[in-house]
Write a structure and sequence with these properties.
The protein is α/β, with parallel strands linked by helices and about 775 residues long. The protein has two domains: about 400 residues, TIM Barrel (Alpha-Beta Barrel); about 375 residues, TIM Barrel. Helix content is about 40%, strand content about 10%. The chain contains 27 helices and 21 strands. An eight-stranded parallel β-sheet has the order 1-12-11-10-9-8-6-2. Helix 17 packs antiparallel against helix 18. It is globular, with a radius of gyration of 26 Å.
């Protein structure tokens, strides 16, 4: 007998970002649909073959997506809003990408619909973004494609039998947004289920024996009615397709009070996340049916540290003894989508650090070792188990990890370091006098387009082909041009453009101790937007100032205020692969002290406004309400620790990306930033309702256009959004800015959009002042 190894999903982007380049080539009109599909087909084949070569028994299919798997599901079931002009039948790529990215009315290469994109938000507590499906009360669902079947057959032609992956109906509807306030998307379950039944019938007819249905919503707080929805769904699916075995995958946490309801479903298998919730295993063993296969997610699908294989084998041996190998699979905790592909691509990485790490490919190997070790005993895999143990021990004792000076400074933090000198009401008057701004002041979030010229110059400098003197000269010209252009169009508060920065986390991490960076360790954030999260492997400190020189240069070019631009400690933490040997809160405080040093140096240099971005503040929020207070307490403390050393005259800004603010509005207020900017354009300012209900007293810059889309909003569209904002907040609170930074956009999109934004602000300013 053997214990099968299972992969829940593999990175879809390609070892060398092939998907990114194929998508962007297609969007720009340089290649056609056939070329894009060829690249996608090759990436799928490469992934299947790699997983088979690494000893994976159960290989997923339909885990690939051209943009996002939630969007794929919405399109597949016909949840396509009327605005996208779909008339039924197969959904073409133009419509698909219009839902993902929006489109221009003038016939942009990807679509001519002239519509905004769907909303986008974080996939649970990860840094992956999904497109939020929209459904209406009279929604009709219909199966528009057989992509899960097609991908299964595609793999079968290569001689690889796969387990198709589909997003579960309960999770899909729980993630969806209702168009209209009279119903909840989950009310549509009975209308959606026939589409899932038809899909499963077609999978069954194609020769599929097992299907993985992802229901990560099962690990959050659910009502009794929501738990009952699982019974409604899975009893219907089991009745419709009785011969098809379902592995119901629950990940990103423990089932807790949902366990009994989920384990009772008529499914052949249940996947558990035993990395996030290791303690749930004993309870699961008590309630799971004896004929139910348990998929044990013991390899971390979200972090990059090497697994302690010996300890995992010791922990699982009693389970094998009670369940028998045929009733067990060993797996990653979730899809490996969230980690880089292969550590062996990192030829320049520190040799010691490299031995401490396992990326997606290495995690497959770890699963194979576990499977063999659990059946044949540790002696059969002694070499690999010993190597893992030795690497973990070497990491724990390495002098690269611990810095007594950092630890001593953390011990010296007191309460006074976490409070501004005076409350906001007093600071506001002082700042208004010091930084005289008009009503509805206009600004941007920080970055300007990273053009091909900027990227080429950075690459040439990194390779030694462009001297430091010439590179510095190039960056100065770009910065000056950006300052002059902002003055020309009439922005009130300027930014320097961040042309010297590669990424909002990487730029800082490269200048902080305790961080390591890779060259090829890309992870998908959304669509063709990939990031290389740094690894925090040791204690963190700031050896030298990081941003003061470039801010000072930009401010010397203008009399208008230029914001100092920093990434906040919680965002740096949440967008990094973080140490697992000390609490996250401790690492967060170390980063906060490093950023505090930078804030103080910027103020000393003359900065009147300093923006400390906490784009990822909410995504670190635990999925369960009872766990949230602990996180919020230390996350707020980290922000206040880095921002509270300045005088009342210095205005502290922060920025947050896509977030549901209802459950963190108290925390946002407790952060005590003078100005917060948030992404609201796709929600049509609905996110401001929480700030209005809370009577949030500080100032807010709600995003007035979507920077994740190539669309250029006209003045009327922006004015209408601002009118919605004015219905929710006082004029004196409102700033006018885009949703987010403009790094990923093109100047031909940014220039007209910001000109229109300034014009809209002026219109409202004149209206409010009765001109």
């Amino acid at each position: 007998m053997t214990i099968k190894t299972a992969s829940l999903g593999f990175p879809r982007i390609g070892r060398h970002r092939e998907l990114k380049f194929a998508l962007e080539s297609y969007w720009s009109g340089k290649s056609d649909q056939a070329a894009l599909f060829d690249v996608a087909r090759k990436l799928r084949a490469d992934n299947w073959r790699l997983q088979k070569e690494e000893g994976i028994d159960i290989i997923p299919s339909n885990d690939f997506s051209l943009y996002d798997h939630v969007l794929d599901t919405a399109v597949m079931v016909g949840a396509i809003p009327n605005a996208y002009g779909w008339k039924g039948g197969p959904v073409d790529l133009n419509t698909y990408f219009a839902m993902a990215r929006g489109s221009q009315v003038d016939g942009h290469a990807d679509c001519g619909h002239g519509v905004p994109a769907l909303e986008m938000t974080k996939w649970f507590d990860t840094n992956y973004h999904y497109m939020v499906p929209e459904v209406s009360e009279d929604q009709d669902f219909v199966l528009t494609s057989e992509e899960p079947v097609d991908h299964f057959l595609e793999a079968k032609e290569l001689g690889i039998h796969t387990r198709p992956v589909i997003l579960g109906p309960v999770t899909f509807l729980k993630l969806a947004k209702a168009r209209g306030a009279t119903f909840k998307p989950l009310d549509l379950l009975l209308k959606l289920l026939p589409v899932y039944e038809e899909l499963l019938r077609r999978l069954d007819a194609a020769g599929v024996d097992w299907v993985q249905i992802d229901e990560p919503i099962s690990v959050i707080d659910l009502t009794e009615g929501e738990r009952h929805a699982f019974s409604v769904a899975y009893r219907a699916l089991a009745k419709a397709v009785p011969n098809l075995k379902v592995m119901l995958a629950a990940y990103f946490g423990g089932l807790r009070d949902n366990l009994v309801a989920i384990a009772a479903q008529p499914v052949a298998g249940l996947h558990l996340d035993l990395v996030r919730a290791p303690d749930q295993l004993d309870e699961v063993l008590k309630v799971a049916r004896k004929d139910q296969v348990l998929s044990l997610g013991v390899i971390d699908g979200r972090n990059i540290w090497r697994a302690d294989l010996g300890s995992i084998i010791d922990r699982l041996e009693p389970v094998v003894a009670t369940r028998q190998p045929a009733g067990i699979e060993v797996s990653s905790s979730c899809s490996l989508l969230h980690v880089p592909i292969d550590i062996e691509l990192e030829a320049a990485l520190d040799a010691d650090l490299k031995t401490w790490l396992a990326f997606a490919t290495q995690k497959l190997g770890e699963l194979s070792t576990l499977s063999r070790g659990l059946v044949e005993g540790k002696a059969a895999v002694f070499e690999k188990v010993h190597a893992a143990s030795a690497a973990i021990a070497a990491r724990a004792s390495s002098p690269k990890i611990n810095d007594p000076l950092v630890q001593g400074r953390i011990a010296g933090v007191d309460e006074a370091m976490k409070r501004r000198m005076n409350p906001f009401a007093e600071r506001r008057a002082i700042q208004a006098d010091a930084i005289r701004l008009p009503l509805f002041p206009t600004t941007t979030i920080g970055s300007f387009p990273q053009t091909s010229e900027v990227r080429t110059a950075r690459s040439a400098h990194a390779k030694g082909a462009l001297s430091s003197t010439d590179y510095e000269s190039f960056l100065r010209k770009e910065t000056e041009a950006a300052i002059r252009w902002q003055e020309e169009i009439g922005l009130d508060v300027l930014v320097h453009g961040e042309f010297e920065r590669n990424d909002m986390v990487q730029y800082f991490g490269e200048q902080l101790s305790g961080f390591a960076f890779m060259q090829h360790a890309w992870v998908q954030s959304y669509g063709s937007r990939y990031v290389r999260p740094p690894i925090i492997f040791g204690d963190v400190s700031r050896p030298n100032p990081m941003t003061v020189r470039w801010w000072g240069y930009a401010q010397s070019l203008t009399n208008k205020p230029v914001k100092g631009m920093l990434t906040g400690p919680v965002t740096i933490l949440n967008w990094s692969f973080v140490r697992d040997d000390i609490p996250r809160s401790q690492t967060g405080r170390q980063i906060a002290l490093a950023i505090r040093d930078e804030v103080m140096d910027l103020e000393k240099a003359g900065a009147r406004m300093i923006q400390i971005d906490e784009a990822a503040f909410r995504e670190g929020l635990p999925l369960r309400r009872k766990d949230r207070k602990t996180y919020l307490d230390w996350a707020i403390e980290c922000f206040r620790l880095c921002s509270s050393g300045v005088t009342d005259r210095t205005q502290i800004h922060t920025h947050m990306c896509y977030s549901e603010f209802s459950d963190i509005i108290d925390a946002i207020a407790a952060m005590d930033a003078d100005v917060i900017s948030i992404e609201t354009s796709r929600s049509k300012m609905e996110l401001l309702d929480e700030f209005r209900s809370y009577k949030y007293p500080n100032e807010i810059g709600p995003g007035v256009y979507d920077i994740h889309s190539p669309r250029v909003p006209d003045v009327k569209e922006i004015t209408e959004l601002l009118a919605r904002a004015r219905q929710r907040l006082a004029d004196s609170q409102l700033w006018v800015n885009p949703d987010c930074g403009l790094k990923t956009r093109k100047w031909e999109e940014v220039r007209p959009a910001l000109v229109n934004m300034v014009a809209a602000a002026r219109e409202l300013r004149n209206e409010a002042l009765g001109r």
